[in-house]
């Protein structure tokens, strides 16, 4: 039975966030169908302020909470989507600081695209296996973790940190689902058949899930 109060999965809202990079993850976290424990999680959006942000797709999104209101121990995960502003350290420092707090307390962090650059610049990828858009892209951050860059996988989980390239939001979502235990392994395989492999058999397998 789901708990009366779902666990929060916090989604950062940087200005000009890349809508598509977290869409698969957030939609299916909030959608109880096929989940091992339906309703266990709920996406909660986090802003630097309480003012709406405009996504890269032109949507206005009003944060549920602000950075200073988030406690990692009360969260299941922090998701950091890409955005045009991650390369400006001052603009995103509160989100990076929050990610550091999450990692320090053992609460998972999932970062994609430009968010990986900001984490690299802060030294958070120096000792963790990771991936991003390209090794040379992360090298521009001046970080010291280049030897741990995984060029084979499009999404990488190392302990409580998930990183991914911008062009593989489905793989990013699958790593998030695995970390959260959102689906049973066989259900996740069917989900990947449908959303990653464009295999209609995945749809029929998912509709058979009770």
UniProtKB/TrEMBL annotation:
Q: What is the protein name given in its UniProt record? A: Putative intracellular protease/amidase
Domain DJ-1/PfpI: where? 10-177
Does Protease count among this protein's keywords?
Answer: yes
Q: Which biological process annotations from GO are given for this protein?
A: proteolysis
> Which keywords belong to this entry?
Hydrolase, Protease
- Gene Ontology molecular function, alphabetical: peptidase activity
Question: What is one Pfam family matched by this protein?
Answer: DJ-1_PfpI
**InterPro entries cross-referenced by the UniProt entry:** Class_I_gatase-like, DJ-1/PfpI, INH-QAR
Q: Looking at the record's lineage, which domain of life comes first?
A: Bacteria
The lineage, from the top, is: Bacteria, Bacillati, Actinomycetota, Actinomycetes, Propionibacteriales
> Is-annotated flag, keyword Transferase?
no
